[in-house]
Specification:
By secondary structure, the chain is of the alpha+beta class. It has 4 helices and 6 strands. The strands form 2 sheets. Strands 3-2-4-5 form a 4-stranded antiparallel sheet. The chain has a two-stranded parallel ribbon with strand order 1-6. The longest helix has 44 residues, at 17-60. 21% of the residues are buried.
Length: 187
């Protein structure tokens, strides 16, 4: 009789219900909390990358002549300012000029973080501010930076996030910035 009575009154007892509800909701709340923190960190890293790219191209366009060593030193400084690892950073710098004989904007020179030339000299460039280059007859320095962001917490769930930022500027003190192996060879 007591067993039957206990079974009938099972739904009426509420001791431990709030603890059970809390135990069911807690993992969802913890996941949301860390998700918000991780999303904020990723958005912050993307913003730092945008600022770093703009600073990088701004510093490059203040020079009349560039060398691979100067560019490498600037990239290390920019990575420190942006608080990003240089091992996860890749960049390509391209000088675009107008060629009146072909009536097109093309690559004058290009360099990446390894010292290579990812864009061949004379290759056409599309998607830049071609009208500005034609009107000013100046070169346009284009900096493309890629950064693989990984978080300690979410890296095992999502992996790395690939961020890309592109910025361009006209040279400040000259019409065209030269890329030379050393400053002594720029004359």
């Amino acid at each position: 009789m007591n067993l039957f009575k206990n079974i009938l009154s099972f739904g009426e007892k509420e001791c431990g219900v709030s603890t059970t509800e809390f135990a069911l909701i807690l993992p969802v709340l913890v996941a949301m909390f860390f998700g918000i923190i991780e999303t904020g960190d990723a958005v912050s890293a993307k913003g730092r990358l945008e600022n770093a790219t703009n600073t990088f191209v701004d510093l490059l366009t203040q020079e009349e002549d560039l060398t691979p060593i100067m560019i490498s030193d600037l990239s290390v400084g920019i990575a420190r300012i942006a608080q990003i690892e240089t091992s996860n950073l890749a960049y390509t710098i391209t000088s675009a000029v107008y060629d009146p004989s072909d009536d097109r904007v093309e690559v004058a020179w290009s360099i990446d973080q390894n010292g290579g030339s990812p864009n061949a000299e004379g290759d056409p460039i599309h998607g830049t501010d071609e009208d500005t280059i034609r009107q000013t007859m100046a070169s346009l320095i284009i900096v493309e930076v890629e950064y693989n962001y990984s978080s300690n917490v979410s890296s095992f769930l999502v992996g790395e996030l690939a961020f890309r930022s592109i910025s361009s500027r006209l040279p400040r003190y000259t019409n065209s910035i030269r890329l030379c192996p050393t400053l002594a060879t720029c004359s």
